[in-house]
């Protein structure tokens, strides 16, 4: 294994492959002025007692204020708040200028239109390398129906807005692209060829159909990002494919094959074979897009922050 030229940057990029939400952490200084910074290092810790954590860099100008404050609030941003996230991620004399914030029940600033907020008392500060972990005891919270803003590989993404672009129709087919160690699971298509694990979407919707499809394969995997949406006009179908990283398990049927075009020769559906060929190339490059179109032609929408050839 070759060592990266910049190990610190490589480690940050590796951490960035974990999809997170985006938060703005707020508090008040000794004079009662609001302070805040953007963070995706948020996690729930305990239900009893109710604890959560965020992290702050020791190089932050707000470090002393947050580590000595009585408490802080975590504001989980909604999909339309990318600009707000950027405001609190950049140096500014007054990040709260023009923002109609309110004091939470425990006193920390709560931002408007967020997906959820948690107003916390500072429970503990844990020094951890070049950061400090702020453990907060949740004093009050509220969740709203607003979908959350996502963060992946250094860029924002809007999962619910993306899902809303998926066309609907009377006959929807969902496919699971189960990837593991440079391979993908293919199964018998019933016509002497191979295909991806697929299922028709029922009344419970795409999410439930995908979860049941993955469970039926015998493979442990999590539903992953949207990868392809295309119409099969001749069959009157909509096909939706999701990349689903597999972690363990033996296939109940079919087998994993190398993620190379040569492995897809027996995939009888031309549209699926073309999609798998694209997946092989994008996997090799480490960059992915989302295909929209029909079984013959369409376009690939680049995932934010990534480039494809």
UniProtKB/TrEMBL annotation:
<dbReference type="InterPro" id="IPR002563">
    <property type="entry name" value="Flavin_Rdtase-like_dom"/>
</dbReference>
<dbReference type="InterPro" id="IPR050268">
    <property type="entry name" value="NADH-dep_flavin_reductase"/>
</dbReference>
<feature type="domain" description="Flavin reductase like">
    <location>
        <begin position="15"/>
        <end position="158"/>
    </location>
</feature>
<keyword id="KW-0560">Oxidoreductase</keyword>
<protein>
    <submittedName>
        <fullName>Flavin reductase family protein</fullName>
    </submittedName>
</protein>
<dbReference type="Pfam" id="PF01613">
    <property type="entry name" value="Flavin_Reduct"/>
</dbReference>
<dbReference type="InterPro" id="IPR012349">
    <property type="entry name" value="Split_barrel_FMN-bd"/>
</dbReference>
